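Example 4.3 (complexes with small molecules)
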Amino acid sequence: MKKICVVGTGYVGLVTAAGLADFGNSVIGVDIDESKIKILQKGGIPIYEPGLLEVVQRNVRAGRLSFTTDIDQAIQDSKVIFSAVGTPPGEGGEADLRAVWAVATSFAKNLNNYKVFINKSTVPVGTGKKTLELIKKNSEKKDSYDVVSNPEFLREGSAVGDFLNPDRVVVGSRSEKAQVIMKDVYHALIIRGVPYVETNIESAELIKYSSNAFLAVKITFINEIANLCDIVGGDVSEIAKAMGLDGRISPKFLHAGPGFGGSCFPKDTMALVEIFKEHGVKSRVVEATIEANEYQKEGVVAKLRSVMPDLKGKTIAILGLAFKPETDDTRFSPTKVVIPLLEKEGATVQVYDPVASDDFKRDFPNLDYKNNAYDAIEGADAMVLMTEWNEFRSLDMKRVKKLLKTPIFIDTRNTYDPRDMRDKGFTFVCTGRTKCAY
Ligand code: UGA
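Answer. The structure with uridine-5'-diphosphate-glucuronic acid bound is encoded below.
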C-alpha cells in the first residue's frame, strides 16, 4: 500500500482521499480546520455529497483512511502528497493561490525522503513551475521531490461516481519517476481501461481550464438559442436533442437554464480570462461567455416581469437556492442574482431548498426561509423554480394552484411541460419553450 496524504477536506479533497483509499491506497486526509477533522474522526462528513459518507466510512473501517490536523507528520509519513485546497477568485478574478503555497511550503519543510507533490486544485498555467521553485527555495534536500499536475473533473452532486468512474485521468509531469508513481496510485483505474493521459505540467494545468471553459461556453450557447426560441417559437429541448445526435456535439451540457453557477465555472472562466491577459492574448469567446451568463441570470426577472409587469408589493416563491441539485453549495448560484433584483423592484420572497438553506443564509440571513415547497408557495403571487431538485419535478399542481394567489409559474429549468401547464391553467414561462404551448 502506498502512503498518500491529501491536504484539504473540501469536496475535492475529501472525495479524492476517499476514492484513492477505495482503490486500495493508504490515505491520510489533512485539514487545518479542526471542526472538519473532528466531524470526520467521529465518522461523519462536513459536506453534503451523495454517496460520499458510505465510501468514507467503508475505507475508515478497512483501516485505509484516517484524518488529522497534523500536516507536518502526515507529509513526513507519506510518499505522495495531494494538494486539494481552495483556489477562490482573488479581487481581480485571478485564482488566489495562498493556500497552495502554504501546502507547498509545508511539503518542502517536511521532505524527509523522496516525495511527489501533486496539485489537484484548479491553478493557472505556470503554477507547477512556481511550485517547483518554491519547494527548492524552502527545502534543503534539492533533488528529493517532483511536482505533478493532476486536475480533477468532479461535479458536485455526482463527485463520487466521477472519481470512481472517470472519463479520463490527466497527469502532467516532466519526471518519469513521478509518472511511474502516479500510475501506481491510479492502477485500479488503468487496469479497467480508463484513458490515462500523460502530459507536461503546463498542458495538464490548461486541460482543466479549457474543459471547464468549454462546457461553460456550451451551456451559454444553448442559453442564447433558448432566448431566441422564446421569441420565434422554437423548442430548445428539441433543438438540443437533435444537435446532440451529432457525435461531434454530444447532447451533454446542452440544458438551457438560468445561467451557470457554482464554485467552478464562474471562477475558472474569470481566471482563464486573467491568464490570457497576463500573457498578452485576448480571449474573446470566454469573455463573451461570462457577459452572456450574467445577462442570463438577470433575464429570470425579465421573464417574471413579462407576465407580472409591476413587482412592487408582490410575494414571490423561490424554489431552489443551490446552484444545482444534489448539493448544498450556493456559491455563484443564479438565485443570488435574482433575489436582490426582485427585492430592488419592491417584491418580497419566500424561499425553500431541500438542503442549501444554511449555506444561503450566510449571504442572505434575513429571507423568509420555509420548510417545504408548499409552504414557500402558499400565498405567493408567483413562483420561480430555480434549481431542478427531483422533489420539485413532481409537485401536486392542483395544490400549487390553490396555494398561489395567482397561478404564475416561471420554470427556469424546463422541468415541466408548457402545454400541460397551460392546460392546468397556469401562466407558464420557461426557458426556450414558452411559446410551444400557444
Ligand atoms: C464542474 C465540471 O462539470 C466538473 O467537470 C469540474 O470538475 C468542476 O466543475 C470543477 O472544476 O471542480 P460543477 O460545477 O460541480 O462541475 O457542476 P456542473 O454539473 O458542471 O454544473 C455547473 C453549472 O452549470 C450549474 O449551475 C448547472 O446548473 C449549469 N448547467 C450545467 C446548465 O445550466 N446546463 C447544463 O447543461 C449543465
